[in-house]
Amino acid sequence: MDHHDHRIRRRILLGTGATGLLGAAGAAAFGATANADPVETSAVEPDVDSTAAWGARPPNGTNPVITGSPNKLIVHHTVSANTADFSRAQAHFHAQWVQDLHMDGNGWRDSGYNFVVSRGGWITEGTTGSKAALLDGGRFIQGIHTSGQNSQALGISNEGSYHDGAEPTGPQWESLVTLCAFACEQYGIDSAEIYGHMDFSSTLCPGIFHDMLPRLREEVGAARDW
C-alpha cells in the first residue's frame, strides 16, 4: 500500500444503487455506469493520529469544549525546520515539539493548534480532544492559536517555515486540503471561510500559505462539492 493511502480512509458516494465504500477508481467506474445517479459526494475522512498515538502530555487543565460548530478555519505554520524527513515518526516528534513549546515556552494548557499537518503529509491531533470532536461534528475544542478567534475558529497548522519563500510539500498540501474539506463538511463551514493567521493578527504566519489561500479554498470546495 502506498504510504499516502493509509492517511485517507474513505470517500462516500451516495446515489441510486450505491452501497459500501468507494475509492477514487470505484467512484469513477460508478459514475460511468448508465443507471448511476450520484447525488452527493462527501469529503474524504483523513487519518488523524490522536494525541495518544503520538504520546502527548496531558493538558495542564481542561480544554474548553464548545457546543456547536466553528465558523471558520485558520491556517498557520509552526516555524520549525523544513525537514526532509517525511516519516510518521518525524510527524510525532514534531507534534511533541509543538506541545512542549506551547506548554513550557508559552505557558499554555496544551498544544494550541487543533491539528498539525507534517511535511510528510501526516496529520496529528494538537489540542487534546480535537479529533473526537471533529468526528462528532457537533462540538469543537477551543485551541490557543489566534487571539480573538479561538472560541469560533479551528486552528490548523503546518510543519515548517514558509515566510522566506519555501513552499509546502506535495503530501503536506494534499493532506491540508483533505483535512480542511472534511472539517468544513463536518461543521458546515463554507469553503470561503478559510483564512490565515495574519488576517487576524500582526504576524507573518502562515507565510506563503496565505498567498495560496485562493487555491486552498478552490480545492477544498472541489473536494467537498461546495
TrEMBL record:
Pfam families: Amidase_2. Residues 1-36 form the signal peptide. Residues 46-201 form the Peptidoglycan recognition protein family domain. Residues 58-207 form the N-acetylmuramoyl-L-alanine amidase domain. InterPro entries: Amidase/PGRP_sf, Amidase_domain, PGRP, PGRP_domain_met/bac, TAT_signal. One of its GO terms (biological process) is peptidoglycan catabolic process. The keyword Signal applies. One of its GO terms (molecular function) is zinc ion binding. Keywords: Signal. CDD domains: PGRP (cd06583). It comes from the Bacteria. Belongs to the N-acetylmuramoyl-L-alanine amidase 2 family. This is N-acetylmuramoyl-L-alanine amidase.
